Amino acid sequence: MRVTVTRDGDTAAMLDALDALDGAAAGSPYLQAKGKAIIESSYAPQFSVDGARKDTGLLGAFDAASEAGHGYDDMAAVYFGFHRGWFGFVTARSIT
């Protein structure tokens, strides 16, 4: 079954898409929860956009640590990404 969801706010189509994906590999509980939140225009933070932005911003530190030869070490070796001068947009304010 192929379900197409358009940007016009077709709630029935969006619900059909969630139903079609429920139980499938791509139909994770997270997808179900966030899909329903989008349909209901419910954006109360479970994990804020700024929190996700900070976490994804840290990927640069992991890249730098990997490039420094720590790709197979424990993730604590991300220290070397910061040690090499990678700071991205992460500030003391954004991680407190």
Automatic annotation (TrEMBL):
<dbReference type="InterPro" id="IPR008927">
    <property type="entry name" value="6-PGluconate_DH-like_C_sf"/>
</dbReference>
<protein>
    <submittedName>
        <fullName>Uncharacterized protein</fullName>
    </submittedName>
</protein>
<dbReference type="InterPro" id="IPR013328">
    <property type="entry name" value="6PGD_dom2"/>
</dbReference>
